[in-house]
Amino acid sequence: MLFNSLQNLGQQGLDFLQRLGRGHILFMHILAGLPGLMARFGLVIQQVFSVGVLSIVIILVSGLFVGMVLGLQGYNTLVDFGAEESLGVVVSLSLVRELGPVVTALLFAGRAGSALTAEIGLMKATEQLSAMEMMAVDPVRRILAPRFVAGFISMPLLAAIFSAVGVLGGFFVGVGLLGVDEGAYWSQMQANVDLYDDIYNGVIKSVVFGIVVTWIALFEGYDAIPTSEGVSRATTRTVVHSSLAVLSLDFILTALMFGA
Amino acid sequence: MNNTVSPVVEVRQLHFTRGKRKIFDGVDLDIQRGKITAIMGPSGTGKTTLLRLIGGQLRPNEGSVVVDGQRVDKLRHDPLYQLRKRMGMLFQNGALLTDMNVFDNVAFPLREHTQLSEELIRDLVLMKLHSVGLRGAWRLMPSELSGGMSRRVALARAIVLDPMIMMYDEPFTGQDPISMGVLVRLIRQLNDALGLTSIIVSHDITETLTIADYIYLLSDGKVVGHGTAAELGGSQSEWAQQFLKGLPDGPVPFHYPAPDYLTDLLATAGEK
Q1: Interchain proximity B95–A126, CB inside 8 Å
Q2: ipTM for the whole complex
């Protein structure tokens, strides 16, 4: 009994390491395919549309509501200290440093990541990837690499849109409904949000999350067992693993950027 | 080298295992240039795996696969992809790219590998579609095609680069009699008109025997018989006779290995 449990644990550990290894090999293979994309940037543009542009609605709506909630919660806390004029700073720093990149990455994993995994997994299950290989077209370079670049480009842009709409959401609630001074909202924000410390760090986070989420989504699809159940499991794994990776990386990046 | 006699594919002492299961255990076979060679055997004998080994999508554990003088099992990425430009493969379900229409599917290899103008690509695609009888269907999406039509479009796509070898994975499975007749005729015509070498993997005996110039029978990871249709028909091998006549029992038993029938029936549910 104990021996079997140990054996299972060992097997699971080995499986995990093998998957990690395959994931890294695929990542290298994708990177090797990037120079070839320069001549065929149209492929990337198509994918920016399906990965990025089609995610805009969910990002706009979520960003607006998150900003409105921040405005409401921030106001209720700040008003006790007579500091409600700092609402703009609270809303914008929360969004630019943390919520913008993190919530966008979680939504991106759910909207675009799952779609990428399902698409690649089904292409594998219906032998479209094999057919490409036999037509002497490398599916990693032709299918995966453009999607990877599209994720890398789209994620920081979506995070920026999320933060911008969130700031507007905070403005509607704080200034429009709760009576915070409009000039104070914008001027305090302008004075206290730093381009390097806050905005650049937020952009770095969103770029890292974009790379990680897209990589996980592509790997899960490419490595999926080519059956309906296998693709369904792979899609679930994409969302779960991407979310966990985003949250844990967020802590590490925050510690590196703001911890010292 | 005399092209008329040298085999275009030479497989020697091929061993291949998947997990703990041995798929090939010392297979030797030659595919002659310009001929249609059939590889036949019951389901699960690794016929499709053999095509993937010839195409370099899988690597053998031991032995060699030589295609047109090149060791496929040793080729690195770029030379392998160069060789594949001269190989066509028809997959069992067609494997058309579902986000493109019929025309773009057939044009796909041309656009990927050549610098031809769109006018020339259009002419070539329409010629290939005409040869499979589907020139009028160029606007349709793969979801609008029947199984037989999908396979014919995939066939047009596979021959659009004028390959040296054409591989067919179970081309007749699940086809109605008319589609089956069309495919049989197309495979023979294309082979002879384009000077191809064709490899057909199948277990549809009647159709395959009518067009194959040479046949290999596979079972349990080994070649158990080979020859022309006439030679195999007269073979004394019990296995060959069971397979070719479709007998339910023989060297390939009807029953999957199981414990004694009576003991099994008398066993209580708990023991199961």
Answers
A1: yes
A2: 0.84
